[in-house]
Amino acid sequence: MIELLTIMTQMNFKLKCRLFALHILLLSSLILLPLRAQVGAQRLDKHTAQQLIDNLQHASENEAYSGTLTVQDFFGKSETSQWKIDVWPTHRAVYQLFDEKADSVVLVLVRDQEKLYFKPSGRKQNRLIRRYIHSWFRQMHLFSDPDLLTQNYQFDLSDGEEHRGRITKFLQVSPLYDGRSDLSIRFDAENYFLYSLTRKFASDSTGIGTYKRQWQDLNFAVPDTAIFQAAIAGTELWDEKRPEPQNFTNLTQFLAHSKADFLLPQYAPTGFKLQFIRQLEHRNINILHFLYSDGLSTISLFQDKEGHKPRKRRPPELEIINVIAGEKDKIHYRLISEITTAELEHMENQLFSVKRESGFSLWLWGTGLGVFVGINFIFWFVLIWRKKH
User: What is the pTM of this model?
Assistant: First the structure.
């Protein structure tokens, strides 16, 4: 997400929206999709579901394969991209993005261990896209919190059709609460490789909010080394240094470090929990990012005191992502998620200010944390009084 924030300020608005929407898809579940639950599907218990998730998480880590990956997304209109991908078990990979109209390669990316190489193609936005995909390589896990996922979704497993002589399985992941994403996966029964996937979002607009990925001509043989050598020739190493954000896993860590005022919601939609807080500086603007998740869907709360006043209206290019922006107590904020606007508005209405002073003094505005501190004070006062008497 940090890489994305840096990118977004340098891009035209339409591309900003498309990449941000794609990032939401990748952060919440890198490669997933909803196919209808199959007849005779088996409902998995929590333990079995977590075991399956773990297998899917690590399915392609040391797997050799090659093929063409077609990605189709709907951001107000249908967009299709096609990648020729070759992966070696030695943590090497070649990614080539094709322009179907021009029948030519638009972008070449080569991964060698932890290093990323690129081949310039002369297009203005390629540098920005490369940076975005670089962050993609660092987020290869499908689910950020498998335990939370199994608390908020149910899993139905069924047999699938053969794929080029290999047995497949279908996994349907359905939300336990309304207004959440819906997804299913077709994967290899032996090595758990994902063949195809679709994800349907709980968009406020009908017919919008679907993301599909499907492999074609997939081969599990080790690709010819000559492909890697030819692709890496003439490339440049991507070694740009970017400042690392400060990460906090919970509110207690954040409060011990930060002395700045901030906004905190008293309410989060059912099933959502705080995953992390990030503090970063971009163009001399201090930005806070609170990320909430239910295991699949995400809610991002961005806030700063120095940025431009955000617009309330959602841009048409961002149909599947709901954005609510505003200002409270001189703090600008944005709530961004694929869940419904109604739930985001309820969360927005429950935002309250946390006022910080120097030292360890903390003024809490709003009933949420104020009540918590009050109850703790009374508890310890009564406990000490009883010991003395």
Answer: 0.74
